Amino acid sequence: MLTTNKALLAKADKGKYAVGAFNVNNLEFIKAVIKAAELEQSPVIVQTTEGAVKYAGIEYLVALAKTAAKLTKIPMSLHLDHGRDLKVIKAAIDAGYTSVMIDASHVPLEENIKMTKQVVAWAHKKGVSVEAELGTIGGSEDLVSAKQIILTDVATAVKFVKATKCDALAVAIGTSHGAYKFSGASKLDLKRLDELKKALKMPLVLHGASGIPKNIVDMAKQYGADLGDPHGVNDEDVKAAVKLGINKVNIDSDLRLAFDAGLRKELAMEPKEFDPRKILQPAADLITEVVRAKMQLLGSSGKA
Fold first, then answer.
1. Which are the contacts of 44, defined by CB distance < 8 A and separation ≥ 6?
2. Buried b or exposed e, range 216-242, using 16+ CB within 10 angstroms
3. Are 80 and 100 in contact (CB under 8 A)?
4. Angle at 231 between CA 138 and CA 132, to 5 degrees
5. C-alpha separations of 268 from 32, 59, 222, 285 in Å
6. DSSP assignment, residue 302?
7. Alpha helix locations (H) across 5-49?
8. Is 48 helix (H, G, I), strand (E, B) or coil?
9. Hey, is 209 helix, strand or coil?
10. Which residues of 249-282 are buried (b: 16+ CB within 10 A; e: fewer)?
């Protein structure tokens, strides 16, 4: 059942849980995420980056998502993650995405407001919800990168939301994109998050929240991956953030690592296999395991 982020997050805000937003690129990823949502009876956000749009094509991605929504009773949305190109955002709105993100966090505040207001005008006209971002999240992933973390200022956030009328706001409280977020344990500015939630009283979004599970990393390394020493956001920090008002949590790196680990293991264990369906299935199954664990962590299981 295809719906909007606005509808999913309003319910999550009221119920004090978060909905996982999982980045997908192809059929295997979408099926694996939806399978997890059905097993957990959890609402789910299926999202694609501009990089995924460039890779797969917007028409293919919309068709896959609409087919998934038709075949499941689970409430789901199709969301454009980190939209920076206004042409791509407009194309996503016109093609059938039910939610889009305008990420103009890299430009001056007034320009961010101007761009966000434009996207809100396009999207709300078609019943599509809009996520915006204020502050910057460090690290690099897909086509998005930032050299430093600039934490979201509370007073500026109030001004921004009032001016743009966005439906959800991605806030910077110390997370980072990619698999190499921290040199040690994660540390989030939860006091700032508490202040933001009380001031804005709206759904807030946590980007760069992948946990980088050690068992998945170890499996990938066992079968040949050269990953160095990756670190993610620990589960307790994510739980605390959800308790303080985060209603959407983005997960990308964990899914990529799971797919990589599952694929490497299958190729090593079954060197004579050349049927791509049999090679790819274990990787998809591992994604499903990771997504189920995230849904349980975020408190969305049983909320469909």
1. 19, 20, 22, 33, 34, 36, 37, 74, 75, 76, 295, 300
2. bbebbeebeeeeeebbbbbeebbeebb
3. yes
4. 30
5. 22, 35, 10, 17
6. T
7. 5-15, 27-40
8. strand
9. coil
10. bbbbbbbbbbbbbbbbbbeeeeeeeeeeeeebbb
Dist. CA 31–CA 212, nearest whole Å: 21
Q: Which two tokens stand for residue 226?
A: 């050269």
Q: What are phi and psi of 102, to 5 degrees?
A: -105, 115
Distance CA 182, CA 295 (A): 23
Which band of pLDDT confidence, cut at 50, 70 and 90, is reported for residue 143?
A: very low
* Residue 247 near residue 169, CB atoms below 8 Å: no
Do the bridges between strand 168-171 and strand 246-251 make them parallel or antiparallel, or are there none, so unpaired? Answer: unpaired
Beta bridge partners of 139: 146, 177
Other C-beta atoms lying within 10 Å of the C-beta of residue 150: 14
Q: What is the secondary structure of 136-159 as a DSSP string?
A: B-EEEETTEEESS-BPPPHHHHHH
Mean pLDDT confidence for 106-117: 95
Residues catalogued as catalytic: 81
Q: Domains of the chain, with CATH numbers?
A: 5-298 (3.20.20.70)
Q: Is the pLDDT of residue 4 over 90?
A: yes
CA dist list (Å): 34 to 18, 20, 44: 17, 12, 8
90 has a pLDDT exceeding 50: yes
Q: Which H or E run includes 294?
A: helix 276-298
Q: 154: which residues sit within 8 A by CB, 6+ positions away?
A: 192, 195, 196, 199
CA dist 12 and 6 (Å) reads: 10
User: What confidence tier does 208 reach under pLDDT thresholds 50, 70, 90?
Assistant: confident
Using only the alpha carbons of the chain, give its radius of gyration: 18
